[in-house]
Structure to design on (226 residues):
């Protein structure tokens, strides 16, 4: 299925963007392998995050201004919007390095959300956003869009903060997570390396709520705690 086909299938407004880049598919394959050790896993997460953020920022507004080159005066362009990177702790931390390489001027605001393994619902434990929004565009960074609960909670927080433009950037997504996020926030673009088959259930020989075929627990695999 092509990228445009996937976008039409999963995006209520055509706003789901699985990467079609060969390098993204290659790096995701390495991430999926269970033999990939934590150091290499972290490197791949950062590299893939940089690629996905590049794709997610193709529509950034620009401010046009004249600049002087060593030869003449020409028209240049600088970013017109302040961007915030919102990694969801802890797994989202690994994506910040790659995103920051592309957007070194971006602000980074952490959100602490974990999923209760019994209810599969997000539980907030950390939020240090200032009273007033300081950015115009927020990129939520979280490797997995599984049930969608954490993403929905993060978007709720950011919209209540006053941010009008929000995008989700992750490594892989489950159809259930896409449907859940867009049922509440259909305006949020989703940029991922791949849309996988489904979530595991209680009938599977694995804990429920994991993306299948997935890549396991992204936090455990990054930090060597699994």
């Amino acid at each position: 299925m092509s990228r445009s086909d996937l976008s039409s299938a999963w995006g209520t407004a055509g706003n789901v963007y699985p990467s079609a880049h060969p390098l993204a598919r290659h790096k995701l394959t390495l991430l999926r392998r269970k033999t990939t050790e934590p150091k290499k896993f972290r490197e791949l997460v950062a590299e893939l995050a940089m690629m996905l953020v590049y794709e997610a920022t193709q529509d950034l507004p620009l401010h046009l201004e004249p600049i002087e080159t060593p030869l003449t005066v020409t028209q240049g362009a600088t970013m017109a919007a302040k961007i915030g990177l919102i990694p969801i702790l802890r797994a989202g931390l690994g994506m910040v390095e790659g995103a920051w390489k592309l957007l070194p001027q971006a602000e980074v605001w952490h959100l602490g959300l974990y999923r209760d393994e019994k209810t599969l619902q997000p539980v907030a434990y950390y939020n240090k956003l200032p009273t007033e929004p300081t950015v115009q565009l927020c990129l939520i960074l979280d490797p997995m869009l599984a049930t969608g609960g954490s993403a929905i909670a993060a978007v709720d927080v950011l919209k209540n903060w006053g941010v009008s433009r929000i995008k989700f950037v992750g490594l892989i997504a489950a159809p259930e997570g896409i449907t859940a996020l867009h049922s509440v926030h259909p305006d949020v673009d989703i940029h991922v390396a791949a849309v996988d088959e489904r979530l595991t259930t209680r009938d599977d020989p694995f804990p429920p709520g994991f993306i299948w075929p997935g890549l396991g627990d992204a936090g455990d695999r990054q930090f060597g705690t699994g």
About this structure: The chain has seven helices and 15 strands.
